[in-house]
Specification:
The protein is of the alpha+beta class. It folds into two domains: 96 residues, 60s Ribosomal Protein L30, Chain: A (2-Layer Sandwich); 112 residues, OmpA-like domain (60s Ribosomal Protein L30, Chain: A). The chain has six helices and ten strands, in the order H-E-E-H-E-H-E-E-E-E-H-E-H-E-H-E. The strands form three sheets. A five-stranded mixed beta sheet has the order 6-7-10-8-9. A three-stranded mixed beta sheet has the order 4-3-5. Strands 1-2 form a two-stranded antiparallel sheet. Helix 5 links the parallel strand 8 and strand 9. The relative contact order is 0.13.
Length: 258
């Protein structure tokens, strides 16, 4: 019996490590072995100061292949164009960042535009005026359990899922947070809708939020940096008369703060 119990524990640990490794390394491209790796290769796109159209570099094809692999079947790609407010903007866009992100969208025309989100960010390029690395790319996870957003993520799982039987995609995302967001503070909000009354729905929402908090703590996140609360059956996102609507309304939202 002891050997059988040991085998079960070993298999569980192997599965847990594998799911976390896949999410961190393959989806987020942040394997520990690659952190800090030096490279002299130019990024896929560079820009000249004050110019919105990119210069496409030799690494473009390899870059696009990696992006498609990480996008998979459902993930989203955020393209953030960077701009210096001192640059002269001669485009029809509000700023050169948006213009640059839009130009990259056109260069990636074989990727479904419905899976691409554009944004811009103001920075200072300082004395650098040539070959600006003026665009960043972020893969946002989107599957049946996790939908990443600009604020953090929305998690979807029913009452049959608990800390002992987490789906690999959900566990992988939580492991990513524990490893790469551990210097930030997190607010976890639980929502729940069922025909049990407002007070009980509030309790169930808090129970789900606390479950996610407990998993993050087990994975090494500082408990003093996590707060939980419940909004019960408020802020409905979908029709509660359908099974999919109830599932969408019964969610946990994670807000990752600086």
């Amino acid at each position: 019996m002891r050997s059988r119990a040991f085998l079960i524990v070993l298999l569980f640990l192997t599965w847990s490590f594998s799911s976390g490794w896949y999410y961190v390394c393959k989806v987020k491209a942040k394997c520990p072995s690659s952190v800090g790796a030096a490279t002299k290769e130019l990024p896929a796109f560079t820009f000249r100061y004050g110019i919105s159209n990119p210069e496409v570099n030799p690494s473009f094809n390899e870059f696009k292949t990696r992006i498609k692999e990480r996008l998979g079947e459902s993930n989203l790609l955020t393209i953030t164009g960077l701009y210096d407010p001192n640059e002269l903007n001669t485009t029809d866009f509000d700023n050169l960042g948006t213009a640059r992100a839009t130009a990259i969208l056109q260069a990636l025309s074989d990727i479904d535009p419905g899976r691409i989100v554009l944004s811009s960010k103001e920075i200072s390029f300082g004395a650098q005026v040539d070959a600006l690395d003026a665009v960043t790319f972020t893969i946002l996870t989107k599957n049946q359990f996790v939908e990443e957003t600009s604020f953090g993520a929305s998690l979807y799982f029913d009452e049959n899922i608990n800390a002992e039987n987490l789906p690999a995609k959900l566990e992988g995302y939580l492991q990513f947070i524990a490893i790469h967001e551990n210097e930030k503070t997190i607010a976890i909000l639980g929502y729940w809708y069922n025909e049990v009354g407002e007070a009980e729905n509030s309790d169930l929402g808090l129970e789900r939020a606390n479950m996610i908090r407990g998993i993050l703590i087990e994975q090494g996140f500082n408990p003093d940096q996590i707060t939980t609360s419940s909004r019960g059956q408020s802020e409905l996102l979908a029709d509660n008369t359908t099974e999919s609507g109830i599932r969408e309304n019964s969610r946990v939202e994670i807000f990752i703060n600086e």
